[in-house]
Amino acid sequence: MNLIEKYSTAIINSKSFEVFITIVILINSILIGVQTTYDNHLIDMVQLVILYIFTFEIILRAIAARNAVDFFKNGWNVFDLILVIIGWIPTSAAHSGSTMMALRVLRVFRVLRLLRTAKEIKLIVAVLVKSMRSMMYNGILFLIFVYLYAIAGVSMFRLPDPATLTGEKLEKYEQLIADAPHSPANAPDPYGSIGEAFFTLFRALTGEDWTDLRYNLVTASRYGIIQVSPSVITIFHVSWFCISAFLLLNLVTGAVINNYQASIEEAERRRKQLTEGEQKTMEEIM
Protein backbone atom coordinates (compact mmCIF):
# COMPACT_ATOMS: atom_id res chain seq x y z
CA MET A 1 0.00 0.00 0.00
CA ASN A 2 1.56 3.30 -1.10
CA LEU A 3 1.22 6.59 0.72
CA ILE A 4 -1.69 7.85 -1.42
CA GLU A 5 -3.69 4.69 -0.77
CA LYS A 6 -2.96 4.95 2.96
CA TYR A 7 -4.16 8.54 3.19
CA SER A 8 -7.21 7.80 1.02
CA THR A 9 -8.19 4.90 3.26
CA ALA A 10 -7.68 7.00 6.38
CA ILE A 11 -9.83 9.81 4.99
CA ILE A 12 -12.81 7.74 3.87
CA ASN A 13 -12.79 5.78 7.13
CA SER A 14 -12.61 8.86 9.34
CA LYS A 15 -15.70 9.90 11.26
CA SER A 16 -15.32 13.58 10.36
CA PHE A 17 -15.28 12.80 6.63
CA GLU A 18 -18.39 10.65 7.01
CA VAL A 19 -20.20 13.47 8.84
CA PHE A 20 -19.11 15.97 6.18
CA ILE A 21 -20.41 13.79 3.33
CA THR A 22 -23.68 13.27 5.22
CA ILE A 23 -24.16 17.05 5.51
CA VAL A 24 -23.37 17.47 1.81
CA ILE A 25 -25.90 14.77 0.91
CA LEU A 26 -28.55 16.48 3.06
CA ILE A 27 -27.91 19.84 1.37
CA ASN A 28 -27.97 18.20 -2.05
CA SER A 29 -31.24 16.40 -1.25
CA ILE A 30 -32.91 19.62 -0.08
CA LEU A 31 -31.74 21.56 -3.12
CA ILE A 32 -33.02 18.85 -5.48
CA GLY A 33 -36.47 19.37 -3.98
CA VAL A 34 -36.14 23.16 -4.15
CA GLN A 35 -35.16 23.00 -7.83
CA THR A 36 -38.46 21.35 -8.73
CA THR A 37 -40.23 24.69 -8.11
CA TYR A 38 -37.48 27.31 -7.93
CA ASP A 39 -34.04 27.60 -9.48
CA ASN A 40 -31.35 30.25 -9.88
CA HIS A 41 -27.67 30.58 -10.64
CA LEU A 42 -26.61 30.34 -6.97
CA ILE A 43 -28.34 26.99 -6.50
CA ASP A 44 -26.76 25.71 -9.71
CA MET A 45 -23.32 26.74 -8.47
CA VAL A 46 -23.85 25.04 -5.11
CA GLN A 47 -25.00 21.86 -6.88
CA LEU A 48 -21.90 21.99 -9.06
CA VAL A 49 -19.64 22.27 -5.99
CA ILE A 50 -21.48 19.32 -4.45
CA LEU A 51 -20.94 17.33 -7.63
CA TYR A 52 -17.20 18.04 -7.40
CA ILE A 53 -17.25 16.84 -3.79
CA PHE A 54 -19.02 13.61 -4.76
CA THR A 55 -16.55 13.10 -7.60
CA PHE A 56 -13.62 13.61 -5.22
CA GLU A 57 -15.19 11.14 -2.78
CA ILE A 58 -15.64 8.41 -5.39
CA ILE A 59 -12.03 8.93 -6.56
CA LEU A 60 -10.84 8.49 -2.98
CA ARG A 61 -12.85 5.29 -2.66
CA ALA A 62 -11.40 3.99 -5.92
CA ILE A 63 -7.86 4.76 -4.74
CA ALA A 64 -8.47 3.19 -1.32
CA ALA A 65 -9.75 -0.02 -2.91
CA ARG A 66 -7.00 -2.57 -3.42
CA ASN A 67 -8.11 -3.18 -6.99
CA ALA A 68 -11.02 -2.65 -9.38
CA VAL A 69 -12.65 -5.92 -8.34
CA ASP A 70 -12.82 -4.82 -4.70
CA PHE A 71 -14.17 -1.43 -5.71
CA PHE A 72 -16.98 -2.76 -7.90
CA LYS A 73 -17.76 -5.57 -5.49
CA ASN A 74 -19.21 -2.94 -3.16
CA GLY A 75 -22.72 -2.18 -4.41
CA TRP A 76 -22.69 1.28 -2.80
CA ASN A 77 -19.57 2.20 -4.79
CA VAL A 78 -21.27 1.21 -8.04
CA PHE A 79 -24.39 3.14 -7.06
CA ASP A 80 -22.39 6.28 -6.20
CA LEU A 81 -20.32 6.03 -9.38
CA ILE A 82 -23.44 5.84 -11.56
CA LEU A 83 -24.93 8.89 -9.83
CA VAL A 84 -21.71 10.87 -10.32
CA ILE A 85 -21.56 9.97 -14.00
CA ILE A 86 -25.21 10.97 -14.44
CA GLY A 87 -24.51 14.23 -12.62
CA TRP A 88 -21.89 15.19 -15.19
CA ILE A 89 -24.35 14.91 -18.10
CA PRO A 90 -24.68 18.48 -19.44
CA THR A 91 -28.05 20.15 -19.05
CA SER A 92 -28.04 21.06 -22.74
CA ALA A 93 -27.61 17.40 -23.68
CA ALA A 94 -30.41 16.44 -21.32
CA HIS A 95 -32.83 18.78 -23.06
CA SER A 96 -31.85 17.42 -26.48
CA GLY A 97 -33.35 13.97 -26.03
CA SER A 98 -35.83 12.11 -23.86
CA THR A 99 -33.29 9.42 -22.91
CA MET A 100 -30.75 11.95 -21.69
CA MET A 101 -33.47 13.82 -19.86
CA ALA A 102 -34.50 10.61 -18.10
CA LEU A 103 -30.89 10.08 -17.03
CA ARG A 104 -30.74 13.58 -15.61
CA VAL A 105 -33.95 12.97 -13.68
CA LEU A 106 -32.23 9.98 -12.05
CA ARG A 107 -30.12 12.47 -10.11
CA VAL A 108 -32.92 12.55 -7.55
CA PHE A 109 -31.72 9.12 -6.44
CA ARG A 110 -28.83 10.89 -4.72
CA VAL A 111 -31.25 11.13 -1.81
CA LEU A 112 -30.80 7.37 -1.42
CA ARG A 113 -27.17 8.01 -0.52
CA LEU A 114 -28.46 8.87 2.93
CA LEU A 115 -29.08 5.15 3.35
CA ARG A 116 -25.35 4.51 3.66
CA THR A 117 -24.70 7.19 6.27
CA ALA A 118 -26.31 5.36 9.21
CA LYS A 119 -25.24 1.88 10.24
CA GLU A 120 -28.77 0.94 11.26
CA ILE A 121 -30.19 1.94 7.86
CA LYS A 122 -27.38 0.13 6.05
CA LEU A 123 -28.22 -2.96 8.08
CA ILE A 124 -31.88 -2.75 7.09
CA VAL A 125 -30.92 -2.35 3.41
CA ALA A 126 -28.60 -5.35 3.68
CA VAL A 127 -31.40 -7.39 5.22
CA LEU A 128 -33.78 -6.43 2.40
CA VAL A 129 -31.22 -7.35 -0.26
CA LYS A 130 -30.46 -10.69 1.36
CA SER A 131 -34.14 -11.40 1.80
CA MET A 132 -34.82 -10.72 -1.88
CA ARG A 133 -32.13 -13.21 -2.81
CA SER A 134 -33.30 -15.91 -0.43
CA MET A 135 -37.02 -15.60 -1.13
CA MET A 136 -36.88 -17.05 -4.64
CA TYR A 137 -38.53 -20.29 -3.57
CA ASN A 138 -41.09 -18.37 -1.51
CA GLY A 139 -41.87 -16.39 -4.66
CA ILE A 140 -42.24 -19.55 -6.71
CA LEU A 141 -44.61 -21.01 -4.11
CA PHE A 142 -46.61 -17.78 -4.11
CA LEU A 143 -46.88 -17.76 -7.93
CA ILE A 144 -48.08 -21.37 -7.91
CA PHE A 145 -50.91 -20.54 -5.51
CA VAL A 146 -51.81 -17.36 -7.39
CA TYR A 147 -51.92 -19.25 -10.68
CA LEU A 148 -54.12 -22.02 -9.27
CA TYR A 149 -56.57 -19.58 -7.68
CA ALA A 150 -56.58 -17.38 -10.80
CA ILE A 151 -57.54 -20.31 -13.01
CA ALA A 152 -60.21 -21.40 -10.53
CA GLY A 153 -61.54 -17.84 -10.27
CA VAL A 154 -61.78 -17.35 -14.03
CA SER A 155 -63.42 -20.76 -14.47
CA MET A 156 -66.07 -20.17 -11.82
CA PHE A 157 -66.62 -16.42 -11.54
CA ARG A 158 -66.11 -14.89 -14.99
CA LEU A 159 -69.14 -12.80 -15.89
CA PRO A 160 -70.74 -13.19 -19.30
CA ASP A 161 -70.22 -10.66 -22.08
CA PRO A 162 -73.26 -8.31 -21.91
CA ALA A 163 -73.29 -8.17 -25.72
CA THR A 164 -74.30 -11.83 -25.76
CA LEU A 165 -77.15 -11.39 -23.27
CA THR A 166 -80.78 -10.74 -24.13
CA GLY A 167 -84.09 -10.44 -22.37
CA GLU A 168 -84.26 -11.32 -18.71
CA LYS A 169 -80.55 -12.20 -18.43
CA LEU A 170 -79.56 -8.77 -19.75
CA GLU A 171 -81.95 -7.09 -17.31
CA LYS A 172 -80.41 -9.03 -14.41
CA TYR A 173 -76.91 -8.12 -15.58
CA GLU A 174 -77.85 -4.44 -15.65
CA GLN A 175 -79.38 -4.82 -12.20
CA LEU A 176 -76.09 -6.31 -10.97
CA ILE A 177 -74.24 -3.29 -12.31
CA ALA A 178 -76.64 -1.02 -10.43
CA ASP A 179 -76.44 -3.00 -7.17
CA ALA A 180 -72.72 -3.83 -7.10
CA PRO A 181 -70.56 -0.67 -6.82
CA HIS A 182 -67.41 -2.40 -8.06
CA SER A 183 -68.96 -4.36 -10.90
CA PRO A 184 -67.82 -3.95 -14.55
CA ALA A 185 -69.74 -0.67 -14.87
CA ASN A 186 -66.62 1.19 -13.71
CA ALA A 187 -64.00 -1.56 -13.62
CA PRO A 188 -63.06 -4.69 -15.58
CA ASP A 189 -64.56 -8.03 -14.65
CA PRO A 190 -62.40 -9.09 -11.63
CA TYR A 191 -62.11 -12.59 -13.04
CA GLY A 192 -62.54 -11.78 -16.71
CA SER A 193 -59.06 -13.04 -17.63
CA ILE A 194 -56.01 -14.64 -16.06
CA GLY A 195 -54.22 -11.30 -15.93
CA GLU A 196 -57.12 -9.52 -14.28
CA ALA A 197 -57.58 -12.43 -11.88
CA PHE A 198 -53.91 -12.06 -10.83
CA PHE A 199 -54.53 -8.41 -10.00
CA THR A 200 -57.79 -9.27 -8.20
CA LEU A 201 -56.02 -11.82 -6.01
CA PHE A 202 -53.26 -9.32 -5.25
CA ARG A 203 -55.95 -6.82 -4.32
CA ALA A 204 -57.46 -9.37 -1.94
CA LEU A 205 -54.01 -10.02 -0.47
CA THR A 206 -53.65 -6.34 0.47
CA GLY A 207 -57.09 -6.40 2.11
CA GLU A 208 -58.42 -3.76 -0.30
CA ASP A 209 -62.22 -4.29 -0.53
CA TRP A 210 -61.77 -8.04 -0.89
CA THR A 211 -65.10 -8.60 0.81
CA ASP A 212 -66.79 -6.55 -1.94
CA LEU A 213 -65.59 -9.14 -4.42
CA ARG A 214 -67.44 -11.79 -2.47
CA TYR A 215 -70.62 -9.71 -2.06
CA ASN A 216 -70.77 -8.82 -5.76
CA LEU A 217 -70.31 -12.43 -6.84
CA VAL A 218 -72.94 -13.59 -4.36
CA THR A 219 -75.31 -11.07 -5.93
CA ALA A 220 -74.38 -12.36 -9.39
CA SER A 221 -75.07 -15.89 -8.19
CA ARG A 222 -78.46 -14.89 -6.78
CA TYR A 223 -79.39 -13.34 -10.13
CA GLY A 224 -78.27 -16.49 -11.94
CA ILE A 225 -75.52 -14.68 -13.87
CA ILE A 226 -72.89 -17.14 -12.61
CA GLN A 227 -73.66 -20.74 -11.73
CA VAL A 228 -71.77 -20.95 -8.45
CA SER A 229 -73.26 -21.17 -4.98
CA PRO A 230 -72.58 -18.43 -2.42
CA SER A 231 -70.89 -20.96 -0.12
CA VAL A 232 -68.30 -21.80 -2.80
CA ILE A 233 -67.71 -18.08 -3.41
CA THR A 234 -67.19 -17.52 0.32
CA ILE A 235 -64.86 -20.52 0.75
CA PHE A 236 -62.80 -19.43 -2.27
CA HIS A 237 -62.16 -15.88 -1.06
CA VAL A 238 -61.74 -16.66 2.64
CA SER A 239 -59.33 -19.52 1.91
CA TRP A 240 -57.29 -17.33 -0.44
CA PHE A 241 -57.09 -14.52 2.10
CA CYS A 242 -56.00 -16.93 4.84
CA ILE A 243 -53.36 -18.63 2.66
CA SER A 244 -51.94 -15.41 1.22
CA ALA A 245 -52.17 -13.05 4.18
CA PHE A 246 -51.27 -15.48 6.95
CA LEU A 247 -49.26 -18.35 5.46
CA LEU A 248 -47.34 -16.86 2.52
CA LEU A 249 -46.63 -13.50 4.16
CA ASN A 250 -45.43 -15.23 7.31
CA LEU A 251 -42.94 -17.17 5.21
CA VAL A 252 -41.61 -13.83 3.96
CA THR A 253 -41.46 -12.49 7.52
CA GLY A 254 -39.53 -15.56 8.64
CA ALA A 255 -37.01 -15.12 5.83
CA VAL A 256 -36.50 -11.45 6.75
CA ILE A 257 -35.96 -12.27 10.43
CA ASN A 258 -33.41 -14.98 9.62
CA ASN A 259 -31.52 -12.64 7.29
CA TYR A 260 -31.67 -9.86 9.87
CA GLN A 261 -29.80 -12.02 12.36
CA ALA A 262 -27.29 -13.07 9.71
CA SER A 263 -26.73 -9.44 8.69
CA ILE A 264 -26.13 -8.39 12.30
CA GLU A 265 -23.45 -11.05 12.68
CA GLU A 266 -21.84 -10.11 9.36
CA ALA A 267 -21.87 -6.38 10.23
CA GLU A 268 -20.22 -7.12 13.56
CA ARG A 269 -17.53 -9.19 11.86
CA ARG A 270 -16.85 -6.42 9.32
CA ARG A 271 -16.72 -3.81 12.08
CA LYS A 272 -14.01 -5.76 13.86
CA GLN A 273 -12.04 -6.18 10.64
CA LEU A 274 -12.40 -2.47 9.82
CA THR A 275 -11.25 -1.45 13.29
CA GLU A 276 -8.18 -3.63 13.01
CA GLY A 277 -7.49 -2.25 9.50
CA GLU A 278 -7.80 1.37 10.68
CA GLN A 279 -5.35 0.76 13.50
CA LYS A 280 -2.82 -0.77 11.12
CA THR A 281 -3.27 2.08 8.62
CA MET A 282 -2.74 4.76 11.25
CA GLU A 283 0.34 2.95 12.56
CA GLU A 284 1.78 2.79 9.03
CA ILE A 285 1.10 6.51 8.43
CA MET A 286 2.67 7.51 11.73
Query: From the alpha-carbon coordinates, what is the Rg to the nearest angstrom?
Result: 28 Å
Major sheet characteristics: none
What shape does the CA trace take?
elongated
CATH class value of the largest domain: Mainly Alpha
N-to-C order of helices and strands = HHHHHHHHHHHHH
Give a concise summary.
With 286 residues, the protein is mostly helical. It has 13 helices and no strands. Helix 11 packs across helix 13.
What does this structure look like?
The chain has 286 residues and is mostly helical. It contains 13 helices and no strands. The protein has helices at 3-13, 15-34, 41-64, 68-73, 75-87, 91-95, 98-105, 119-134, 136-157, 167-179, 194-206, 210-222, 230-285. Helix 2 runs antiparallel to helix 3.
Quickly list its features.
286 residues; mainly alpha; Helix Hairpins; 2 domains; 13 helices; Four Helix Bundle (Hemerythrin (Met), subunit A)
Task: Describe how the helices and strands are arranged.
Blueprint: H1 3-13, H2 15-34, H3 41-64, H4 68-73, H5 75-87, H6 91-95, H7 98-105, H8 119-134, H9 136-157, H10 167-179, H11 194-206, H12 210-222, H13 230-285
Helix pairs in contact: 1-3, 1-13, 2-3, 3-5, 8-13, 9-11, 9-13, 11-13, 12-13
